Amino acid sequence: MDGEAVLLETTAFDRVQEDKVRARFNADRDEEYQEFIGRCAGFEAEIAKEIAIKKFTYAELEEEDTDLKKLKGWFEKIKKLDFYGGALANEAAERLKLCEALLDGYAQRVFDAQAENQPDPI
Length: 122
Known about the structure:
122 residues; mainly alpha; elongated
């Protein structure tokens, strides 16, 4: 592809400047993690709603699975820019795990609700 890359190494003038750069990176990541956590809360609410109304369809499961994949991709993008270990990184990772577990539980309900998965009457 004939691409080109340039790497620059920077050195702060002093510890104060280094701390400012680090604080700015962390603030930016925390903002992204906070938004991500909010989206996880929305995902959790959506799964709870579908369970409450007993909407156990493959189409809905596929839609929720797509949403979870988007969350995972977004989380990976944030992590790639989290050079200094943002304060909300662990909370965001735990929320993503919760979303995965909720989808697994919902998937089992969808599977259990389908007629083809019911035992044959004797």
